[in-house]
Design goal:
With 255 residues, the chain is an alpha/beta fold. 36% of the residues lie in helices and 26% in strands. The protein has a six-stranded mixed β-sheet with strand order 6-7-8-3-9-10, with helices on both faces. The chain has a four-stranded antiparallel β-sheet with strand order 2-1-4-5, covered by helices on one side. Strand 1 and strand 2 form a beta hairpin. The radius of gyration is 18 Å and the shape is globular.
């Protein structure tokens, strides 16, 4: 990785257990700012578990234990005294299936701001337009902001969820297979959107679609059985992997 890049996240020897079952094994990697980093690997290899470690979502699972260090712009995420609400404002997350609230489009976007106590209508209005423009949705919904978000198409709902996530201006945006439930056209729109969003945010993308990783990411991490096998620039991973296991997975020999 080029040394001149700043890192948004630095993971050092991160291991995680669900009860007696170890799901992550000593993951060490640095995630560059304002880039898209893809996590690839077979089902059950730990991609989503690693993603959810960054915003402590795994804490919601009984008997989950994490060791090691995750630094978010220099601050330790795994500190027991970490304010999780504050952390999740800094680290937004978009899930596999669109999950808009059963509220209006407007209220979905400003939800996080309202939780923070923001009541100024001008600020809310400006945030709605900014976030929806950033999510490439403004032109489609600007005349229907008070419409129920559940009436939107799946692709529009996923862009709305992205708008909701970026409205509070997180430092990092986690994307857990954000296009797996979408049609090819909606998938293309989301992929183009990701390339735009990295100008303002650091993105980490879990995907089973290796073509998607190759298309949109700047860096790729290949994981297998809870371990990080290889992490490099995406072009290098897909054209000249250093590890045989990476090459075998990329070429479809297993996975």
């Amino acid at each position: 990785m080029p040394e001149e890049l700043d890192n948004a996240l630095v993971l050092e020897n991160v291991s995680l257990w669900y009860g007696d079952k170890q799901a992550l094994n000593g993951i060490t990697m640095a995630v560059p700012k304002n880039r898209i980093t893809a996590l690839i690997g077979p089902s059950g290899c730990g991609k989503s578990t690693l993603l959810r470690s960054v915003n402590r979502m795994n804490d919601l699972i009984d008997n989950c234990r994490t060791e090691g260090s995750i630094l978010l712009n220099g601050e330790c995420v795994l500190n027991p005294r970490q304010d999780l609400s504050a952390l999740r404002r800094r680290v937004g997350m978009v899930f596999q299936r669109p999950n808009p609230f059963p509220k209006t489009i407007y209220e979905n976007v400003v939800y996080g701001l309202r939780l923070q106590g923001v009541r100024d209508r001008r600020v809310l209005d400006e945030t709605v337009e900014r976030a929806l423009r950033a999510a490439a949705l403004w032109s489609e919904v600007k005349d229907n902001l008070w419409q129920n978000a559940l009436t939107l198409s799946s692709g529009q709902q996923q862009r709305l969820v992205i708008a909701r996530a970026i409205a509070i201006e997180p430092e990092v945006l986690l994307l857990d297979e954000p296009t797996s439930a979408l049609d090819p056209i909606s998938t293309l729109v989301i992929e183009e959107l990701m390339s735009t969003l990295k100008q303002h945010f650091t993105l980490i993308l879990v995907t089973h679609n290796m073509q998607q990783a190759a298309r949109v990411s700047d860096y790729t991490a290949f994981m297998h059985q809870g371990s990080l096998v290889e992490f490099d620039e995406t072009d290098a991973i897909f054209t000249a992997p250093k590890q045989r296991r990476t090459e075998d997975y990329i070429t479809g020999r297993y996975g």
